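re: the backbone from monday

yeah here it is again, tokenized this time
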């Protein structure tokens, strides 16, 4: 404590992963890179709305001078919390600034230790999604998950669901909808008429649930994609209180302070946004969120067809029904190039709910491969035949095919990859001169031009319709006219060369 009226509270436990995503630290403590830590302060004298008290914290890396600006958040009662994640090793110092003297001028420090191999915050490698820390690209293939009320204070449920969806299926993230649960965790499926207050505060229980889900997904190597709002037809928007108005801005600041320091999440503004959200709404939301977050998180907004409501967001988001390989290519490179793309409809296996858009298990499998071979567009998936009562996805009957997709692409989807379909009668992604992935559907052979490939020509073929098994291919030459003759007609992927390009990790 530096002589102010705030009491600095240090938890006796430095690892609180079972309950929260953070560790509490005191003077002289250390933490690991990409893992959140926090300081807690008691401030019993504040008499106003605690969610309206703005207390800023400026972190500075003592060696390199890098800075991260964030805010404290109210955690109930007289408690305020400062949360931080170190983006580089070394000593970080902070000082707070606040109109309330009890939270003004607080100082502290933490030494961040290296954490090799850990995934950091999401980032962009051109049009590809990526992770800092591992310096790797990935394709968001997320499963539709339940609402915060269904996983609040349920660590065991989340652990079991990570086993089901990440390990047994091979998806790499959860998609969760919040809506009115921002203000009342029990109203996640409700509308703004279900919130009695004309000036509601954020519900800390919802944030406890999101923290738990994000933290566990991150430690399992995955991510969480949040839909903030829904459509105006069902009144699942902040429209009642004013878009970017007082209530909305208070919520945005709280999201930034409480969730901003946590790696591995992104946010879509909602669905059917053409009903209520215009260009200026999205511009102001995006600017305010990033002005209050000390760490980058992808913020986007789904638009109909292959257009954008506002081009200034962090990723391009589209509503498409049953996109093909060519649709994915157009979304990634021809419409709004240079930033990652998300086909942000939910691709759901259903029977005659919306016949023009419902999926089948086979369409799901091919969608995974098409979106990846096109260059890496994100998707949300769900199997909704006899689903759980909470609205999340049921287990896929072809989960071994989804797992085959995931196993094939582990350590093979590279940020350096480009499309080069001139090499094949199927489709091809290539790390130029080093590594190629070829893919074809419903075929018995695949023609490949391997001219110019350098180094190892180690090659394997995998049947995308079967459980994962690599078929070694020999006698391939770095020449045109190479042919893979499959043992049966199916969808086939062939990897040739070394995916670990110089400088990659």
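seq for it, each position gets an aa:
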């Amino acid at each position: 404590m530096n002589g102010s009226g705030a009491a600095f509270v240090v938890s006796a436990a430095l690892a609180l992963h079972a309950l929260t995503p953070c560790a509490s630290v005191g003077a002289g403590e250390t933490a690991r890179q990409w893992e959140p830590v926090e300081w807690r302060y008691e401030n019993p004298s504040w008499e106003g709305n605690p969610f309206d008290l703005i207390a800023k914290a400026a972190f500075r890396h003592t060696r390199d001078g890098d800075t991260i600006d964030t805010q404290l958040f109210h955690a109930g009662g007289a408690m305020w919390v400062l949360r931080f994640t170190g983006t580089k090793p070394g000593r970080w110092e902070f000082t707070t600034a606040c109109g309330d003297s009890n939270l003004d001028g607080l100082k502290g420090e933490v030494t961040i230790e290296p954490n090799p191999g850990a995934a950091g915050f999401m980032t962009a490698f051109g049009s590809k999604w990526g992770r800092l820390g591992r310096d790797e690209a990935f394709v968001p293939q997320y499963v539709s998950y339940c609402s915060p009320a269904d996983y609040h204070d349920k660590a065991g449920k989340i652990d079991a669901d990570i086993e089901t969806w990440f390990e047994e299926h091979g998806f790499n993230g959860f998609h969760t909808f919040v809506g009115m649960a921002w203000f009342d965790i029990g109203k996640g499926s409700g509308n703004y008429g279900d919130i009695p207050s004309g000036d509601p505060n954020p519900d800390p229980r919802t944030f406890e649930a999101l923290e738990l889900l994000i933290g566990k997904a991150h430690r399992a190597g995955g991510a969480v994609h949040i839909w903030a709002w829904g459509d105006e037809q069902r009144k699942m928007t902040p429209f009642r209180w004013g878009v970017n108005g007082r209530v909305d801005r208070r919520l945005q600041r709280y999201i930034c302070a409480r969730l901003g320091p946590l790696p591995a999440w992104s946010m879509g503004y909602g669905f059917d946004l053409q009903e209520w959200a215009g260009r200026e709404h999205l511009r102001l939301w995006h600017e305010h969120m990033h002005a209050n977050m000390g760490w980058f998180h992808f913020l986007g907004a789904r638009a109909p067809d292959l257009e954008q409501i506002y081009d200034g967001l962090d990723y391009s988001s589209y509503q498409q029904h049953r996109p093909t390989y060519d649709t994915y290519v157009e979304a990634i490179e021809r419409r709004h190039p240079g930033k990652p793309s998300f086909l942000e409809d939910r691709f759901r296996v259903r029977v005659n709910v919306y016949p023009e858009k419902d999926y089948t298990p086979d369409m799901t499998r091919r969608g995974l491969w098409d979106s990846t071979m096109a260059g890496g567009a994100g998707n949300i998936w769900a199997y909704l035949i006899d689903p759980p009562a909470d609205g999340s996805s049921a287990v896929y009957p072809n989960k071994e095919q989804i797992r085959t997709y995931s196993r094939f692409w582990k350590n093979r989807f590279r940020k350096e990859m480009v499309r080069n379909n001139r090499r094949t009668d199927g489709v091809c992604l290539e790390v130029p001169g080093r590594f190629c992935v070829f893919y074809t559907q419903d075929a018995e052979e695949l023609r490949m031009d391997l001219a110019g490939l350098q180094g190892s020509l180690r090659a394997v073929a995998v049947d995308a319709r079967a459980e994962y098994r690599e078929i070694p291919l020999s006698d391939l030459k770095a020449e045109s006219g190479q042919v893979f003759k499959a043992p049966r007609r199916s969808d086939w992927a062939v990897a040739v060369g070394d995916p670990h390009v110089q400088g990659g990790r």
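Residues 10-20 have pLDDT under 50 and may be disordered. Helices lie at 148-151, 155-169, 204-219, 246-258, 279-292, 325-335, 361-373, 399-409.
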